[in-house]
Amino acid sequence: MKVIITGATGLVGGAVVRHCIANEKITHAFVLTRKPLPELATDPKVTVVTHDDFSTYPADLLERLAGAEGCIWAIGGRATQFPDVETAKRVGVDYTLAAANAFASALAPRLPDGRAFRFVFCSGKYAEWEQEKSLAFLADTRRIKVRSAIVNAGVCPVLDSDLRRN
C-alpha cells in the first residue's frame, strides 16, 4: 500500500513516517512537506514531496501522488502554537479539508478494483465533539481538533458515535 504522510517534522507525523518505513505492508510513503527532508530522501521507500501551500493541490502535484491509497494527516498543533486562532483554524480545518477534497476527487477514482481511499485525521487528546460546550482548558485547540466542518464535510465516511468518548 502506498500512503501520503503529512506533518513529518512534528512528533506524531515523524513517528508515522518511521512506522510506515518499518511496516512491510506499506510499500511506499509520499511525505508531503513544506521543507526538504534530506534524512528521508535517501530511503528507497520514501518520496519527499515539497509543497508550499496546503490550501491548494495543483494537478501536477496530484499526479506525483498517484497510486496512493491513503493519507495520514498529522498537521496541526495547539492553538497557542500559532500566531492567532484564525491561523490555527486555517491549518487545522481548512488545510485538512482542502487535502481531503483534492485526494477524494483526484486520487480515489483512480484506485483499482473499487478500493476506497483512506484519510486518517490525527486529532488530539481531549478533542471535543460538542463545539458549543464550555471547556475549562485548551478550548480553541480542543474544538479545532474535531472541528465539525471536517466531520460534516461529507468528503469521506467518519466513524460513528460508538468510538466517541463522552
UniProtKB/TrEMBL annotation:
Span of domain NAD(P)-binding: 7-90
InterPro entries according to UniProt: NAD(P)-bd_dom (IPR016040), NAD(P)-bd_dom_sf (IPR036291)
PANTHER family, per database record: EPIMERASE, PUTATIVE (AFU_ORTHOLOGUE AFUA_8G07320)-RELATED, OXIDOREDUCTASE HTATIP2
Protein name per UniProt: NAD(P)-binding domain-containing protein
Species, as recorded: Phialemonium atrogriseum
